[in-house]
Amino acid sequence: MENKYQVIIGMEVHVELKTNSKMFCGCKNDPFHAGKPNIYTCPVCLGFPGALPVANKKAIEWTVKLGLALGCKINKFSKFDRKHYFYPDLPKGYQISQYDLPFCYDGKVETSFGPVGITRVHLEEDTGKLIHQKIAGRDVSLIDFNRSSVPLVEIVSEPEIYSSAQTKEYAKKLRQIVRYLDISDCDMEKGGMRLEANISLKKSEILNPKSETNSKFKLSKELPNYKVELKNINSFRFLERGIEYEIKRQKEILESGKTPIQETRGYNAEKNITYTQRTKESAADYRYFPDPDLPPIRIDDQWMDEIKKDFPESLDGLFARWQTKYNIKPELAELLFETNQEGQWLNKLFKKTYEQKLPIDKMVNLLIHKKIKTVLFKDSPNKAIEEYKKTTVIDDITDEQLKVFIDKVLSTNQKAVTDYKSGKTAVMNFLVGMVMREAKKKIEFKRLEKLIVKEISK
Length: 458
Description:
elongated
């Protein structure tokens, strides 16, 4: 049964931008640290009649910046649209979003499983937050509008993801890029980054029912006529587990001769199951049309130059350069930092470490395991190197220079030499320590032991 189907997944990832103000009003954008519900609100983000929105320029620039980082093409002419649906956390009865002219389109994210195409990157406003609790013994739903109209970027992929593992890697890579650009904290526990996966199984045609090999199956080139959306996942692990469950569930339905219902499902982490939330809407259900209160956005060459002015080196380019020059593996480098500013700090550190001919691989290992007592990205790179020298073995001394110290230690510790020759090899620890004390340096034990044995054997 395993080879009858190919998993087809497309991702929709929502990221809240950390601009100072909200998307279409001047209210403070800080829903996660607000002292009380509904304190960062105004007639615009509460959807009062007659209140007029004004687009946040910085949010537009950051969306374009993200698009560039994902290799997208940029629409020089774009607009905002109204997406209509009715839900208590949507005060206007519609969401200001983008439909046919997103700011960014046709990009790509590289994964170890292969590239994943980016269909679009568009900008919209977030909704309010529903809070379910008991008051006076009754179950009620309350609404906090501090999050209403916070700028929200949506990154939509092509259906070019073929496993739960690739989905997880793709989502983690996206978060890494967003954090590197320093446009969002992507706090998944609080909803700063939300993951949604559209999952379906592509059924193959049976070529030879009697064949015992995989060749009896031929995958269809057409996409399935359904998809199931796994909604609002806030953990990479839950995303992977939820997809695995959904693959198994859909296989069982297909094997029974039926087609899974096109719907939106949630994921219950405690039970490790998905469950129905609502039937899946189509674009027509939302009755999109251009927002008449917001003028179209034109990104001219001058504005684009301003956006690109402080654009950082790409993450893939940075990792490739570190690997070529310093022999730092990308999978280790990505554990060290998140933002561009932190990457630049490491750039300086690696350059100084390299210039002083110190082993960078050991520096990276100590940084990853936090064995250097300096505060990363706050103390200077010079201080990190000082701490590094105290912590690690520095082999910047030649064999000839070491021989001078070894001869001195052996001549003044004849009993230890005699003990070693008689088979008491544990004394080597003492001799190595004495040589390091004389040299006033930490030296690799195996190297020093080899040199001492060589001198004793003469």
